[in-house]
Structures
1.
Amino acid sequence: MTDEEREAVYAQFADLQDDREALLDAVTDATLHALRVPVKLLGYQYIFLGARYILSRPSNEHPTMLKEIYPYVAVRVSSNRVMVERAMHYAICCAWKRADPDIMYSYLGLRGRDLKNPPTNVEFLYLIAERVRLIVGDPEGEERYQRMKREAERRFGLVFR
């Protein structure tokens, strides 16, 4: 996505400021496009629904993939949990192969060795959800994002710059 395209997408968000749900949908969709997640794959829709589910929860709740997110998405798309998990993982792997390192850094804060292997489904969904919360504006967003980065660095060895 070029800078002009990105500015055009953000200009569209100005019209959606009154409708928070439509704004969250638009920003989530634009983020997935920027990260080059292939739209034609079912995993795109599943990642979108999973990220929106995380965004719909209160900021202090952290839904788990197996118990909450996969079953929620599976019910919404009339599938099962295993198919949702596999489709998400495949879409993430495809996006990771097509990824531009500068975009990954600017959108997710990942750099260097972090770009060699794709993140897990839960890491990817939470990184997208946090990015969307920062764009849309969440009063607790910046503080929560910094805590999430510290936790990811501690637990997974991810490096944020």
2.
Amino acid sequence: MTVEVGSKTEGKVTGITNFGAFVDLGEGQSGMVHISEIANGYVKDIHDVLKVGDTVKVLVLNEKDHKIALSIKQATEQPRKPKYQHHERKPQRKPVESFDDMMSGFMKESEERMSVIRKNTEGKRGGRGGRRS
């Protein structure tokens, strides 16, 4: 029996490498699940998720030159919720300030910065005030 692309089947993990896991599909056929197709999240070490002898449900992704690509993630994936839903709260904006409020805030901040600059430069040699004779 030849596996068909897009079909789901069960298999047994026969080997684990750094880049994926080999799965026996029965009747002398085996395929490989790449590390990126094992779980939805990031998998640093395959041994944390699978071990030799585990029975897994897989989806056949493609078959080329008797090499079968499999996916555990896509075989068991749940339908995802949309990222944004209408009933979610929107981030609240700051109340809009009038031009006079913004200008007074700018002037206050500007005066504070200028006073710090004056305090730091006037007391130093060669600062404001010109040359001494």
